[in-house]
Amino acid sequence: MISPTLPAELKAALDGKLQGFSRTDAAQRSQKISTAYRAGGGSGTIKSEADALAYALARMPATYAAVAASLNALGEIASDLAPETLLDVGAGPGTASWAAAEAFPTLQDFTLLDANATLSRLALDLARDSTRLAECRYLPGEAGVNLAEVSPADLVIASYIIGELSEADQRKLTEAMWAKARHALVVIEPGTPAGYARILALRQQLIARGAYVVAPCPHERSCPLTAPDWCHFSQRLPRSQAHRQIKGAEVPFEDERFIYVALTRTAPESRAARVLAPPDVGKAEITAKLCTEEGVALAKVPRRDKAAYASARRWRWGDAVIAES
Ligand SMILES: C[S@@+](CC[C@H](N)C(=O)[O-])C[C@H]1O[C@@H](n2cnc3c(N)ncnc32)[C@H](O)[C@@H]1O
């Protein structure tokens, strides 16, 4: 399991870029970028080196934490996955590549695909002195077009990109990414109902192509949740002082809501139920909402069952757990 906080080398590279960069300027730029995102404008507003850095300072810690949690979930179920090659689709500043390098020490070959030249320059700059990523390759331009040209990779990751595409383009990119995923594909999106809907559509599209779902779902059936409920998770991460200044935030931590799906070409050897919400720890029992192979279940673990209760006390939202039926 890897930590949700940025690796030391990445933090040092970001801190280095921060020298001489006004926090007020960074805060204004990141505010403008967030407003554009909320209005559905995507990352098109990131046009200058300063914009790219402001974006990375504001968002990279949180998207890194979400990718780290998703890769931890993949590695926990697909425990013999040892990828050597990675395609990071819509890599931006290289967030998912950094997380994948931490999660999979076997990775040796990193290819980053992104249409935004400014973010890509930053990605290469941040990776320059990295022990693992210094030799990474960057393919500029439309990811769908570039995917047609590249060799397949053991692991393909698309973190916070598909929401920037039209529905038709999401379907095309999904197809292209799966075609290049030798062993696994992980797609991560914001933990909103819209992000969940995109992940559900992608999941369904690829199950029809023979994909297995490794996480978060312990099955390939239709999602048992019904609106207004939606599947998402939350990852807490510490906020640095610079990050607090840029975000105008008081608290020293941030909770990133995200949704993901990890798909593989071979069936997972084991399945575990997934905790879908923070468990309720009561005096007499622990109640936890679980997604199981049979559907959604409210597991009740009584205090009198000492061993099961002690183990359920450690359950956290998003965990894969073995629940007694
Ligand atoms: C929100 S950023 C996410 C960056 C990074 N994956 C992360 O998680 O921090 C989305 C990225 O996708 C890229 N992008 C969006 N549409 C693209 C496309 N059709 N082809 C290539 N890159 C694309 C954008 O340029 C941007 O860098």
Task: Identify the notable features of this structure and list them briefly.
325 residues; alpha/beta; Rossmann fold; OB fold (Dihydrolipoamide Acetyltransferase, E2P); eight-stranded mixed sheet; 13 strands; globular; binds S-adenosylmethionine
Could you name the CATH class of the largest domain? Answer: Alpha Beta
CATH third-level topology of the largest domain: Rossmann fold
Low-confidence segments, ≥5 residues, pLDDT <50?
none
Largest sheet: 8 strands, mixed
For the record, give the distance between the C-alpha atoms at the N and C termini, rounded to a whole number: 27 Å
CATH architecture of the largest domain: 3-Layer(aba) Sandwich
Assembly level: single chain
Count of distinct strands: 13
Q: What proportion strand?
A: 15-25%
Q: Indicate the overall shape.
A: globular
Write the layout of secondary structure elements.
Layout: H1 8-18, H2 23-38, H3 49-77, E1 85-89, H4 95-103, E2 109-114, H5 117-127, E3 137-140, H6 143-149, E4 153-159, H7 167-180, E5 181-190, H8 193-207, E6 212-215, E7 233-238, H9 241-247, E8 253-264, E9 273-275, E10 280-281, E11 285-292, E12 295-302, H10 306-312, E13 320-321
Parallel strand pairs: 1-2, 1-4, 2-3, 4-5
Antiparallel strand pairs: 5-8, 6-8, 7-8, 9-11, 9-13, 10-11, 11-12
Helix pairs in contact: 2-3, 2-9, 3-4, 3-5, 6-7, 7-8
The structure holds S-adenosylmethionine.
